[in-house]
Amino acid sequence: MILALTGASGIRYGTRLLEVLSEFRDVEIHLVVSDAGRKLIEIESGYSFESVVDMADFSYGSGEMEAPIASGSFRTDGMCVVPSSTKTLSSIACGVTDNLVTRAADVCLKEGRELVLVTRETPLNLIHLENMVKVSKAGATVLPASPGFYSNPETVDDMVDFVVGRTLDQLDVEHNLYRRWRG
Q1: Is 86 annotated as a binding residue?
Q2: Which CATH class is domain 2-170?
Q3: Are the beta carbons of 21 and 56 closer than 8 angstroms?
Q4: What is the rounded average pLDDT for all residues in the chain?
Q5: What is the model's pLDDT at position 125?
Q6: Is 120 labelled a binding residue?
Q7: Of 20, 55, 89, 142, which is most buried, counting CB atoms within 10 Å of its CB?
Q8: Do the annotations mark residue 180 as ligand-binding?
Q9: What is residue 164's three-state secondary structure?
Q10: Contacts of 82 by beta carbon, 8 Å cutoff, 6+ apart
């Protein structure tokens, strides 16, 4: 599984997803952190950059275009960009592959693999919305970081777990991070 952390506020969603995925012994995690994502880890998550990298099996900087995940011949189960900045969304939508995050996302699209973009921007302008439509038509899932309240969250962590759980749902990964809707 490829996990990319980019420069949108909401890095806690990405670090929490990494925590959960790292608990699965059969999931090999390839982590890519953009320069802006690296800064946000320290500002928003309470983690050090090194401790985040330690949770992954493999880690890369966004400039490491020689990484195995840059090639379609390297098989993965998919990729999550959590959080996905609107800059990253735009690059993916336009096929700009000038860093490892956007190249790996492009590989997932061209190979028909899962690509989940957890966007965390508000409000959205027409360009953002059009880019979301473009990546959706190309096969990606756009998952805005919008927690549901039917599970009666009591803490910010509960709201983060809801979004992380919905992300895992897209990857068909079993979890118990939130209480599912029962009507």
Answers
A1: yes
A2: alpha beta
A3: no
A4: 96
A5: 97
A6: yes
A7: 89
A8: no
A9: helix
A10: 3, 4, 5, 10, 13, 14, 17, 116, 118, 164, 167
